[in-house]
Every structure is written in structure tokens, then in C-alpha cells.
Amino acid sequence: MKRIVLCPNPMRDAQLRHTREIEARLKTAGFAPTVYPLHYVTEDRAEPVGEELKALHEAIKSADLIICLGGDGTIMHLARATAPYEVPMLTVNLGRKGFIAELEAKDLDKVIEVSAMEHYRIEKRMMLDVKVSRRGQIICEEYALNDAVTRGATRLIDMEVYTDHQLITKFSGDGVIVSTPTGSTAYSMAAGGPIIEPTAKNLTITPLCAHMLTAKSFVLAPDRVVRVKVTLSGTKKAFLSVDGGSFDLEDRDEIIVTQSKHITRIVKASERSFYQILNEKLGEEE
């Protein structure tokens, strides 16, 4: 029997109304789904933690399909948990924009129809490996589906950005974003970065409010190694955000970003193209 795991964000699915309806309909169709509500940090972000994370990993290991119900933040954090297990994820948007999600809350019939399929159309999304090096030691390692953002806490910070040890740019500013194609429609786009098809394989570097006229976005080949070196003088503070998390940085920390061996497998359940979704979500169509 197909093993289906439902992962809702309780702040997006009030009283798990949509989740329970899907669960009941899947049972009627002969499946035995399990439900793992994700701990929520804020209304937008949901991620498994502690014992909940352990239980979710055990469920995912033997799952054939994950159904994620929430906004893009929920999908991103679930993608990090599922990445090592190569389990496809059917995404249902219960958030606002929902660039990553394939279906909307009104598409529950489609959720059941796709869940019952023997084979899925899969869209493979590139992910990032993100590390922080401090005095030659790796002190933090994360995955990202969207982006890794280096930011000053309250003031401008000095940054040097390298690829394969060659200097790309050096500037003072609010920060810098290293994003995947999936992340190109998120913070990077808002900061003036390019929009890239989600199935492409590129690394995009987008400065944040750089105090330099020549500081522009760069699109790099996927095999590049991006290094961001941070200089924090005086009482300046900075942090690293990996798909919405937060890690405090120190002076001369180095953020290393590479293409991950892991990918996120999104089940293609809609006939809408990326461009249709983009136009709808950006309000260019009625």
C-alpha cells in the first residue's frame, strides 16, 4: 500500500480542516495516510523540531509521497527535512503568494487524484549546501531550497564575494543573497535580481542596498563555489539566514555556498506553466 504522509502548517490550516478532509478522502480511496503537523515558529514559517523532527524523519524514510499544506515557508523547511530521502512532495498552497506550491486549497479533488497515481511527473529543484567557516573551522551546515542571505543586523557591513577564489565584488551594504532558481522569485527578485526558471541550475548573487553603483547581480554556473567574507568593525553585527532561519555571524566569518547533491522533488500536479503562475502571483492577470 502506498505510504502517504500529510504535513500541514497548523497556522495556515486552521484546526487542520483541509488536512483532515484529505486524510478522510485518502482513507476512503484505500490508503492509510499519517499526519505530522509541523511546529510553527511564526505564521509564515513552520519547521519540525526536537522529537517531532525525529518522528517526521522516521515517517519520511518509508514514505512514497509527502503532501505539504502551507505557504512557501512551510515547503522550504519541509524540503530541508525530506532532502536526504528523495521522497516526492505534493504541495498545496495555504499561504499568500505561494510561488513554489503546485495546487491551491480549492484543488482538493486534484490532490486526491494525483495521490492515487502510480507514477508522478516530477520537477527537480536545485538546492544549496551552506556552511559557515570561522577561523578555519566549519561551525554551521545547512541545506537551502531558496537562498542563503548574509545581512547586517542594524547597520551596513563590509563584504567580499568570491567564486572559486576569484573576487567577484566588494562593497558595503545591507547584505547579499545567494539564491537558487527557485529562490529567484523570492527575496532576490524583491532586491532587483533576475527571475530564473525553477528547473534551471544556477547560482545567483544579488547585493542588498549596496553603496556602490557597479554592484549588480551575477548569475553563475552551478559548479561554482561562492564565498562571502564578512568584515564587522566595532559593534556591528550580522547574521546568516538560510531559507528563513537565523545564525549569528562574527567578524571575518566566511559563508561557503555550493550546489547540493540533494534536490527537492516537486510533484507536477498542475498544467499551469511557470510563467502563468508568475503572472498570476504578481497580479498581472485578473
Overview of the structural elements:
The protein has 286 residues and is of the alpha+beta class. The chain folds into two domains: 132 residues, Rossmann fold; 136 residues, Tumour Suppressor Smad4 (Sandwich), CATH 2.60.200. The protein has six helices and 17 strands. The strands form three sheets. The chain has a six-stranded antiparallel β-sheet, covered by helices on one side. Helix 1 packs across helix 4. The mean pLDDT is 90.
Chain-wise SSE layout:
Blueprint (H helix, E strand, L loop, with lengths): L3 E5 L8 H12 L5 E2 L14 H12 L3 E6 L1 H11 L6 E5 L9 E2 L3 H8 L6 E13 L2 E8 L2 E6 L4 E7 L2 E8 L1 E5 L7 H4 L12 E6 L9 E3 L5 E6 L6 E5 L4 E3 L4 E14 L6 H8 L5
Helix pairs in contact: 1-4
**Could you list the spans in which at least 5 consecutive residues all have pLDDT below 50?**
none
Structural class: alpha+beta
Instruction: Find the CATH topology of the largest domain.
Output: Tumour Suppressor Smad4
CATH class of the largest domain: Mainly Beta
Strand order of the largest sheet: 7-6-17-14-9-10
Roughly how many Å apart are the termini? 42 Å
The helix/strand series, from N terminus to C terminus, equals EHEHEHEEHEEEEEEHEEEEEEH
- Average pLDDT for all residues: 90
Task: Let me know the CATH homologous superfamily of the largest domain.
Answer: Probable inorganic polyphosphate/atp-NAD kinase, domain 2
The figure for the number of domains is 2
Overall outline: elongated
Characterize the main sheet.
Answer: 6 strands, antiparallel
Known CATH architecture of the largest domain = Sandwich
Number of strands: 17
